[in-house]
Amino acid sequence: MTTVHFTCPDCDQTIEVNDAMRKTILDTGCPVCTAAAAEEHFAVTCE
Fold this sequence. Notes:
This protein has 47 residues and is of the alpha+beta class. The chain has one helix at residues 19-28, and strands at 2-7, 14-17, 42-46.
C-alpha cells in the first residue's frame, strides 16, 4: 500500500493525503498555515 505525507515547510505539520488533497495543497497551500507547497514537500512511502 502506498501512502503520501505532506510536511509543511513553515509550520512543520505532517498529514497523510490522498491524490485530491495533494492537488488542493499544491494549489492553495498548507491547510494549517496556508504556506506555499511544492512537490518536494510530499513523501511517498510503501508499506
